Every structure is written in C-alpha cells, then in structure tokens.
Amino acid sequence: MTNKYTTVRYDHLDEVVHKQVMDNGLEVFIIDKKGYNKKFATYTAKYGSVDNHFKAHGEVHNVPDGIAHFLEHKMFDKEAGDVFNKFSEMGAGANAFTSIDRTSYLFSTTENFFENLQLLMDMVEIPYFTPEKVEKEIGIINEEIKMYQDNPGYRLYHETLNAMYENSPAAIDIAGTLESISEITSEHLYLCHKTFYAPDNMVMILAGDFNIEETFNYIETHQHSRRTFEPSEIERFIPEEPYGVKTPHKTMELAVSTPKVMLGFKSLPDDSDSATRERRDAAMLFALDMVFGEQSPYYEELVERGIIDDSFNFAYQEEEIIRHTLMAVETEDYETFTKEIVRIIEEVKGTDFFTDKRLQSQKRELMGDYLTSLNSPEYIANQYTKYYFDGYDLYNVPQVVDSITIDDVKNYFNSSIDTKNMVEVIVKAYE
C-alpha cells in the first residue's frame, strides 16, 4: 500500500500529527509520542443526546430521548459476551461515554495494541441487538436513572439546564427518562447505529509511539473488509431557542446535609465560526478566573464573609447549540450568595476591573497546565477528539491564548453573562 497520510508538525510544541482519510470516509489521526510506553485510542461518532430528530437518506426520524447513551451501553454486549472482559484479558482498560454531541469508545494499553484496536473496531462497527437484550438493558438503565435522580449534584446540574432552556434538546438528561427509555426497541438501535456510526460520521484518534505506516495500513485493511458505505448525509433538526430562560427559580428537596445552589446564565449560540467560539471560550475562562478565581479579591471577600467555601465552582460551556455560564456552591445562605454574585457581576461590568496584568498572569497559568497535559496520551486523545468535533485544533491553543486581549475578556464577559437572563436552582433538605 502507498502512503496516503499527511503530516503536520507543530514545531513550537515539538508535536507531530499524522492524518489519513480512509476510502470509506473515516478520518484517522495518529498523535506521535515517541518513547511513550502507553498507547491510547478513541473511536468516536458525531452522535449525542441531542440527536433525537434527524433526516437520513431521505427519511425523517424521531427517536426516544436517551437512545445515544442506550446504544453506547449495548455496543459492549455481544452474542459472545461482554467485550469489557475481552479488553481486560488482553491487558487493556476500556471505557465509553456519551455527551450531548458525541459518543466515544476508548482503551489504553501497554501491550497487544493491534489486537485491542481490532477488538475496538469490531465492537463499534458490528451491531448486535435482540429484543430480549434490549428489554434487559431497559431495566439496567432505569436503575441507573433512578440512582442519578437521587444524586443531589447531578440533579442540580440537569435541573439548571432544564430551567434555562425552553426547547433545546441539551436540557434533556443524556440517559433519557424512565418513560423514553421504555420506548426503545432493537429497530431504533439498528437505525441509529446505521445512521450515526457510518465511517464518514466518525473519527479515530491514536496517541502514543507507533510505526505510523504500519498502523495506518492495519486500519485501512480493516476498513476495506467492511461493506461499502454511501455518504451518511445526516440532517439534524434542532428547535429554535428563545432568548429568555424557561424557569427563573426552582427549588427541590433531596437528602442533603447542606443546601446546594446553582446559578445559570444563558447566552444564545450565534453564527460565530469555530475560531471565534474558541477565542470566546478561552476569554471567558480568563474572565471568570479573574472575577471569581481564588486569586480574586471578590473570592477572598466572599470566603471571609462565609458566603462561599471550597465547594464553590464555576464554568463556561459553549457548543454549537448551547452557550451558558454556571456557578454553584453548598451554603445555608443561598439567598445572600445569589445576591452577591449578581452584585459582583454588575460591579465588574461598571468598572475597569479587568487589567492586562491579571490577564497575563492567567495566560501563564493556563499555558503551564496545558504544556504539562501534553505529556499524557490519554489527555491528548480525549481533548484532540473534543477539539476536533468543536472545529478547533488542540495544538493551536498557544496562538489562541496569545491572541486574546483585555478588550476580548471584557467584551465577552459583558455580552455572555446577563443577570436578567439567569436561573437559580436550589436543592434543600427534606422538611
């Protein structure tokens, strides 16, 4: 076989990435980490919990909520038994996860790499569902859903999304509901597997020390042994989301010793390209750290007054179909917490709080963490996959970070956090 792969060198990071698009459309990236003993592989479909209404090959389908997660569970269950055990027998640790926009299968190993890779590809590519096994899995996932419904942190997060979003499928629990799961059939699973696990809707990322040509040839030979695929031509239907939040205030009672509160600030996704979204994501990370991070005077003030403790956390999330900021803490005085967070946000917007000195400090800290993370094949494979689906380049982070100005930080903070577009969700102990 002739070389069909291309190579990109990131000299500023001493990193090398090789890429080949297989004849059936599967994209494969090998991140070359010479001298590393452990190898890591991810095999990921652009298919997540939001994909419940779609058009494929001319037909429109509505499928039950939670089916992407259900399908992920079922891919390990084959006629010959549980594939997890086979990975273990060959010295590999395997796992999988489903998010709103992707389903990823992965393994890491220091031995039998090609045998484990063959197992991974066969497991993901060859579906095996029977009505009996689907019915059994419904019972298993029902128990999982019930367990999560009793988990205060999990409930707090999902109830906050549900309070923010009116129509977005992002507000639906990734696992679905007891009602939606009960509707899933083996026919649904075969349909979704055929549609979303098509090679041109998937990507494989390998990180470690490989013979590049041998590895690409191994994957290519395997892909040639599969049936011929037509282009997947998937059209996703995502309902339009209004600007305002659905439910500004929500209170729940669960088994907690200290109340928990989460604030959600909703921002609508816009028509920004992936480069703009990547810069905004980084700028918001800097902004939130400057205002609410441990080095901030506001953080010190809130700790001294007993309003927050080390349970306080915050995050900005931006994907193609969602964009929001979340803040959470465990506190008896959740009313004061909400009031003070709103005060701080409005105060920051009305002053010159953001300074270049603070920004440069944040940049140095982030770049230190980033460079350290590049020593981990597991981090690289997972993050390269995430960045790929978001339209970003993991190895372009230094340039993105360097390009962000103090005006970017200020403008993105001001436009992304609107206290009038906020939800407050509280979890209290049973009375």
UniProtKB/TrEMBL annotation:
Domain annotation Peptidase M16 C-terminal: ranges: 184-366
Matches recorded under Pfam families: Peptidase_M16, Peptidase_M16_C
GO MF term (any one): peptidase activity
GO BP term, pick one: proteolysis
Top-level lineage group: Bacteria
Gene3D superfamilies from the UniProt entry: Metalloenzyme, LuxS/M16 peptidase-like
Record-linked SUPFAM superfamilies: LuxS/MPP-like metallohydrolase (SSF63411)
Record keywords, A-Z: Hydrolase, Protease
Residue ranges occupied by any Peptidase M16 N-terminal domain in the UniProt entry: 65-177
Protein name from the UniProt record: Zinc protease AlbF
Organism: Jeotgalicoccus coquinae
Gene: albF
